[in-house]
Amino acid sequence: MLLHPTPDLLSILRVTLELVFWATLLAMLIGLPIGLALGLGRFRTRRVWLGVANGGLGLPPVVVGLFVALILFRGGPLGGLHLIYTVRGMVLAQTILALPIVVALTASSVQAIDPSLLQQAGALGASRWRLSVFALREARTGVFVAAMAAMGASLSEVGAVVLVGGNLERETRTMAGAILTSLSGGYYAEGIALGIILLGLTFLLAAALTFIQHSSKAATASSVRYVSSAAR
Amino acid sequence: MSAVLSCRSVRARHTDAEVLHGVDLQLRRGEVVVVIGPNGAGKSTLMYAIAGLLPITQGSIERNGRAAAAMQSPSLAQRTALANVELAISWWEGRHRTPRADRRVRAMEALDAVNAAHLADRPARTLSGGEARRVHLARVLAVDPDILLLDEPFAGLDPSTRADLLYDAASAIRSDRRATLVVVHDRAEAWALGDRVLVMTNGRIEAEGSPREVFERPPTEEVAEFVGFTGALRDGDGILRLRPADVTVDPSGPIAARVVRRVPLEDGVRLELTTPSGTLVTVAPEPAPEIGASTNVRLTGGIRFARPAPVAGTPTGVLSGADRPQTGTAGRQQEADR
Q1: pLDDT for residue B142 is more than 60
Q2: Quick check: B22 and B11 in contact, CB under 8 A?
Q3: Within a domain: residue A36?
């Protein structure tokens, strides 16, 4: 199986990567501004929302999957969208699970920035938008960790995905769902092979993110070196 | 020249307490004004209010231009010194950004102005306290504001680093294009930097003038004590405030005194003395009297304030005519009615 990938395996890989990509992207797009607002903001209910985000880290995937499935079932409030047993429905469930991870980790990374640094930015006329971009950049290590954690959760999650996606062969079956199916059918060798692929995928994506993080740092440093020598 | 900044009866609160109790202040282009005062006097709060970082509760602040402040803590972003200065310029410029190459040239010029061009490539985390302070100063100079605000730019530096930076900053911050307000703690810094000195105590400006006027002829007893007139002798219905330099240990002097504290210094010994009229502080050369020893002193200066204030731990008594300062007092002695 590892040496000669079948169409089934390729479909599983495609669905898994699609789910990971969209769920992580959506969680980052929604979660980063919320995390920034919670990390930088000084509004009254900030602590309550931080508590909600931190509490969300422990959301049981099966419960989330159950609620999302109930909402998306044909008779449910969003049944008309026909998202049940689709990858888009799985993305929705997985985004809900990844969102608190992104929000909580972003907020805590932003809160860890020296407050006097942000105050100094304000004293030099930084607009709120620029201040937010700057804070994200200063907290970039934490933001990368948030992205990796969101990605990891999407990659290995099984409960919500199976409930919402139905684990349909060549349609909504992900790597984790396929492992579950293999083990429940007694196909242990297949399960182990899929597990190895999943592990490899996890490391590969984490390595890619780490590479992006380091190359952006190196690019900044080298451009500054070039310019400063040119200016002199 | 017209004022670039006018503060009128400014009141401001910090947390729950009112810190500024009606501050009036004007800054003109080309001048460097130093604010000095004890901890908690409201100096930094005034700066925050002028910078627009703290809302005022009463009064008005009129700015004829833009203000940029270098806060007390020299916090730098996780990038190189040059990139930090460039970042400050891009914050300042907002949407109307100049080309990146121009920003870099300006950033290098600002670093050069504070003798920090050699630090340009260094990551901020590798800078020493003094180096970070230089980059911090360059950052605010690079934006070339109309009103430059510096909050204790030399805080936390060792004496030699501080002296070096003070020397460089004294010329770097001066410009005909802008008004500069510097908060400092040290009188030597105020002497070195300021055209005008403001002394703040308890949220009010208590004294204003050239460094010489303020430090040699403080208008109130409180200001006098803050600017170094640490000795206090009852003098009739007033009080005579004296600096250590106004008091000389002289066995043939007219005032009997006893040494109660003795601190060795680099250039002598700091003596605290009690007399029947109050306490005195002086710096005497070695060999100086020991603790408990009786001696005599001569007064060579001081300022007389009309209303007496209680002098802790001293019995009532007055200076006789012979005890009063005999030399060098004409220019400094004054009656100050409060």
Answers
A1: yes
A2: yes
A3: yes
